[in-house]
Amino acid sequence: MHICLLSIEILVDIFAATYDTRWGQGSLGTLAALARTCKEFKEPALNILWKDIHGFGPLVLCLPEGVRGITEQGQLTLTRPLFSGEWKIFNSYACRIRSLFIYSKLLDEIDGQVMKVLVSAPSPTLLPNLHSLEWWDGRDFFLPLLHALLAPTIKSMKLYSHPEEPWEPSFAKSTLLISLGARCPHIQEFVCPYSCDSDEHSDAMNDTVCCWSKLIHLETGVLNTQALAHLTSSPSLKFLDFMSCGSVNDTKPDSIPIFTSKLDKVSIAAPSFPILIQCLRSVHFITCRSVVLSVYDHDSLLSRPLDIPDLFVSFAECFSSTLEQFAVHFPGLGHISTEKLVGPPFMLAFTSVNSALRPSTTP
After folding, report:
1. Do residues 285 and 263 make contact, with C-beta atoms less than 8 angstroms apart?
2. For residue 292, with 0-12 CB atoms within 10 Å meaning exposed, 13-18 middle and 19 or more buried, which class applies?
3. CA 122, 124, 128: angle at the middle one, nearest 5?
4. Residues whose CB is less than 8 angstroms from the CB of residue 356 and which lie 6 or more positions away in sequence, other chains included
5. CA 351, 356, 361: angle at the middle one, nearest 5?
6. How far is CA 6 from CA 9, 28, 31, 357, in A?
C-alpha cells in the first residue's frame, strides 16, 4: 500500500469524494467494497457509508438473519429481544450515524416488535453521535422512538407531521418538547412549526427555548415575551420565524424585548392584522436585514381601515431604517415584497416614512 494511504485524513477525503448521492446505490456499493478491501480501509469507509441514514431499516438489516425477519405485511421485524452480542453489532454501526432522516413511510416499514426493542436499548442513547435529526411524522404512537433518539450531541432538529405540515399539538408532543432542553442542550437549529390552538403546546415550546443559548436558526410556533427576551441574549441567532396569537401583548415599555444582534431574517405570522400590530409594538429588531410578515385573515385590514396607520407606526417602532428587504405574505393570495419595488426611490421613501412615523424622543 502506498504510504499516502496510511493517513486517515487522506482516506476520509477519498471516501467522501467517492460517496456521491447523485450516483445512488452505485456509490454506496463502491464504499461497501472499499470497506471490505482491507483493515485500513474498513473504518473510514464505514464511517462515510453510515454518516447519513434514512430510517431504521439499515440498522435492523445488519443484525443476524436468525434475529430479523419480514412479516406477512412486508414489515421488518425482530423475532426476539437482542442479546448483548447483537447489541454490540448494532452499536458498532449506530455510533457512526451523524444524520438521521425519518418520515412516515420509513416508520411504516418496521413493526411494533422493532420499536419495542429499540426503545429498550441498554445504552443511554440509541445513536450516541447523532448531530442532525429530521422527523417527519405526527403520530404519537412513534414518539417513544423519537425520545430514544434524543442526545446531547444533536445540534439540528426538524419536526414536522408531513412535508411542510406543522405538528398537530398533543399532550405526548408537549411532554417530549419539554424534555428537549435537558436532553439536547446544544441545539443550534430547531424547526418545529405548529398552530396556535394549544396553550399547553406553546408553553412547552417556550420553556424549552429558554433552555437554549446557542441557537442560530429557530422556526417554531407561538413565542411569548419571556422566550423572546431570552432570545435577545443570544448573539448567535441569525434566523427567527415565529407566530403571534396575542401572547406578547401589553408589554411594558421598559421590558420590551430588543434584539440588537444582527439577524439575517425575521418572519412573523399572525391570524389577523390587529394581532400583528400588537406584536410589532411588543418587540424591537434593531439590526434586522430582512422581514416577512404573514397574515392569515387578509380581510381583517379591509374591514378595519383605521388600523392601517397603526400598522405603519408599529412597523416603524419594531424595525429600524437598516432594514434591507421586507415582504407581506397573504396565504392563499400571494405576497407583496421589495422585489417588486426595487430602486433608490422606494428605499428613500421607506426611510422617510420610517423616520417620520418613529415616535419623537424630544420633549
Report:
1. yes
2. middle
3. 110
4. none
5. 115
6. 9, 22, 17, 67
Grid cell for residue 268: 412573523
Cβ-contact 88, 67 below 8 angstroms: no
Q: Are 192 and 158 in contact (CB under 8 A)?
A: yes
Q: Are the beta carbons of 231 and 259 closer than 8 angstroms? A: yes
Measured CA to CA in angstroms, residue 174 lies from 68, 89, 200, 205 at distances of 34, 34, 7, 8
**Could you tell me the three cell numbers for 73?**
405485511
What would the pLDDT profile of 161-194 be if each residue is shown by its tens digit?
877 678 888 999 999 999 999 999 999 999 998 8
8 A C-beta contact, residue 110 and residue 80: no
Phi first, then psi: give them for residue 206, nearest 5 degrees. -65, -40
Q: What angle do CA 276, 280, 282 make, to 5 degrees?
A: 115
Residue 65 in 3-state DSSP? coil
The residue extents of the domains of the chain are 1-49, 98-357
- Between CA 260 and CA 18 the distance in angstroms is 44
SS3 state at 17: helix
Contact (CB, 8 A) for 298 and 322: no
Cell of 112: 411494533
Residue 85 phi/psi, 5-degree rounding, is: -65, -35
Q: Centre a 10 Å sphere on the Cβ of residue 205 and count the other Cβ atoms it contains.
A: 28
Give CA–CA dist 351/340, Å, rounded: 17
**What confidence tier does 246 reach under pLDDT thresholds 50, 70, 90?**
low
Distances (CA, A) of 277 to 116, 354, 357: 49, 15, 14
Type of residue at 162: H
Q: Write phi, then psi, for 117 (nearest 5 degrees).
A: -70, -45
**What are the pLDDT digits (tens) for 304-348?**
666 678 888 898 889 988 888 888 877 655 555 555 444 444 444
Element (H, E) at 36: helix 25-37
The phi and psi torsions of 99 (rounded to 5 degrees) equal -135, 130
DSSP H helical ranges for 38-142: 39-49, 57-61, 84-94, 104-107, 112-118
CA 358 to chain centre: 35
